[in-house]
Design a protein that fits this description.
The chain has twelve helices and ten strands. It has about 350 residues and is an alpha/beta fold.
Length: about 350
């Protein structure tokens, strides 16, 4: 591993966070391109009119939603959508190209969906997994991640590489080139490392450590939502994701003084509203992660163009890690959460 280590590097979680930066820097574009070519060709054939990115938990939240957010900002947005695998069973996917992610390659919900589609004669199934020879690989054309296995329960480096694969697919579908995508990687890895090595002010750590509940607000691009999930695994605290500005549309009624709200890349025009009704009105401690100055205590991250969300996610990991360690938590080994949340049993 080429990356420097944070303090507390006895934790696998810390090591794997930094290996996430390496996964970006060392992303195998040649291998990814071989995986992507039939995917792009299948969509271009006219057989499929839309594309589904599915999976469960961390394998879907950031990889899929980040790609959809970037796609939807474009002038010619592709017909992409995301859904959990079990709900997707209720849809007619006969004309839908399907990409499903599962680190283990044995996630029950995804395997059930792919088996159902395979039995129906579906030809457009693609998988993203960290496991060679997996069941997912038997059911689809699969890309095996190069980041290696994770020992900590909280997924980190695999989330980043899964997101890169999905981002690359969408990049190519939008007419981008492999060489152009290569230019995103080094700045992205550098921004992630900067976010992970940034010193977190003790007051920010204390705000999270003392909070009864930790809320995350931000765009529906997977960052804040994924951090809300990681909060449970890393700090063992109750958390919630509040999309966009929903935090000031009624939920303040049940917020308590001392709760914490972490806003990812705040909408500048909404900062005063959050400050007035939540910080001053309720007594919520508001923190921010952003590449600019905000009205709140802020973890400042560098701009990274097409990789901004990766740096935002890494900064959130850094913040949660410091809070978890300050609480005396073994951040590698939750007592209930499993590495494979709902594993398919059988063959």
């Amino acid at each position: 591993m080429k990356s420097p280590l944070l303090p507390n590097n006895e934790y696998n979680l810390v090591k794997e966070m930094f290996q996430g930066a390496d996964a970006i820097r060392d992303f195998d574009l040649d291998r990814a391109f071989e995986f992507a070519r039939p995917f792009v060709a299948a969509y271009g054939s006219g057989t499929y009119s839309r594309i589904l990115f599915t999976g469960e938990g961390s394998s879907r939240i950031f990889p899929a939603k980040r790609a959809l957010y970037e796609n939807n900002k474009g002038a010619k947005a592709l017909p992409l959508f995301t859904e959990g695998s079990t709900q997707a069973l209720e849809y007619d996917l006969s004309k839908t190209l399907v990409s499903g992610a599962s680190n283990s390659g044995r996630t029950k919900e995804l395997i059930r969906l792919f088996r159902t589609l395979k039995d129906q004669g579906h030809q457009g199934l693609f998988g993203i997994t960290a496991s060679e020879g997996s069941l997912l690989g038997e059911l689809s054309s699969a890309f095996v991640l190069g980041c290696g296995g994770e020992k900590a329960v909280a997924a980190t480096k695999s989330v980043l590489e899964q997101a890169l694969v999905v981002q690359f697919l969408v990049h190519l579908l939008n007419g981008g080139s492999k060489n152009e995508f290569q230019t995103f990687l080094a700045p992205g890895a550098k921004a992630v490392e900067a976010a992970l090595t940034q010193e977190v002010p003790p007051t920010m750590v204390d705000s999270l450590a003392k909070a009864g509940k930790i809320y995350f607000a931000g765009r529906n691009n997977g960052v804040a939502e994924e951090l809300a999930l990681k909060t449970n695994e890393i700090t063992r605290k109750d958390s919630a994701y509040l999309e966009g500005t929903i935090a000031v549309h009624g939920i303040e009624e049940i917020m308590n003084p001392g709760d914490a709200l972490v806003i990812i890349d705040p909408f500048a025009q909404e900062e005063e509203t959050f400050q007035t009704y939540l910080e001053k009105g309720v007594g919520v401690s508001i923190l921010a992660i952003s590449d600019r100055k905000t009205l709140f205590p802020t973890l400042h991250i560098p701009k990274a163009d097409k990789m901004d969300e990766y740096a935002q996610l890494a900064a959130g990991w850094n913040l949660l890690l410091k809070a978890g360690i300050s609480l005396g938590i073994d951040v590698d080994t939750p007592t209930r959460a499993r590495k494979v949340g709902n594993e398919f049993v059988g063959s």
